[in-house]
Amino acid sequence: MEIVAYGVLATERPLLEQAFAPSHQVRCLDLFLTPDTAPTAAGHEVISSSVNDTLDAGVLRVLADGGTRMIAQRATGHNNIDLGRARDLGITVARVSAYSPHSVAEFAWALALAVNRRVVRAASRTREFDFRLDGLMGRDFHGRTVGVLGTGKIGAAFAGIAAGFGMRLLGCDVVENPRCRELGLEYVERDRLFAESDLVSLHAPLVPDTRHVVDAAALATMRDDAILINTSRGGLIDTGALVETLRAGRLDGVGLDVYEEEAGVFFRDRSMEVMTDDVLARLMTFRNVLVTSHQAYFTREAVGEIVRTTVRNVEDYLAGRRSDDFL
After folding, report:
1. Which residue numbers delimit the D-isomer specific 2-hydroxyacid dehydrogenase catalytic domain (predicted)?
2. I need a surface site. Which of 72, 101, 228, 250 has the fewest CB within 10 A?
3. Is the Cβ–Cβ distance between 193 and 149 less than 8 Å?
4. Catalytic residues
């Protein structure tokens, strides 16, 4: 069987081809699934999608009409897929329900440390042989309060690192994680977490109840010198409200590995184009904001696990089996 994989990164392609061989061929495309590109899946029963593919009702209809019956998403999140419409069309959807939580948790801390200690600004200066320390003062994280919004596997890994720093741990989630309790994390209401935390890190899935959970009201509750980190999903933050907060001179720093309108921008070279997203362009003018291109998961261990799980999901579908990865 030939499988078409969309949104495949250059470093991901050989891993996918090797993992599917010799049972299946995989045609790896660097283009993303959109209404314009969906017809390229015609004649393929199984396709593999990336987190930034568009799988709305219209795209799913094109896929179904072309014979697609299974979508293997190479990501944990599935907010880009209209699952109800997929079921109506008889399309089976599977995802990678878990991979190395340490990859994302460690990168969230990389962002937090870089923002707090002005690492990017310092590196830019020293490349120009400017060795002044003006404007580079950070703070000790030891003894301060960190708020973890979403305490699943990644949130727990993040909290474990925070405990190593000697921080006070606050958490908020619909379900408490015993591992976080063992670390000394105190579960509190969302508003209290925002109000008391020196550092807030987001590790919640994007669902209707969490969309724009960090809105203007939440940002107003946060301390003026707080740091905000998001390595989960861009839609957790109302980016327009965040820009206004930063314009008002509030928040000590922001680290974002995700952006709510990242589809069509992230994973691509846009350096020779005019950036038409005014919100993103404005966001990146702030010196205390660090934006990376959805790379928190991007370690050998995590990508290898994603590929292996994707192959297993396809094999399970073809054998008529279902696992917890099936939605």
Report:
1. 11-323
2. 250
3. yes
4. 233, 262, 294
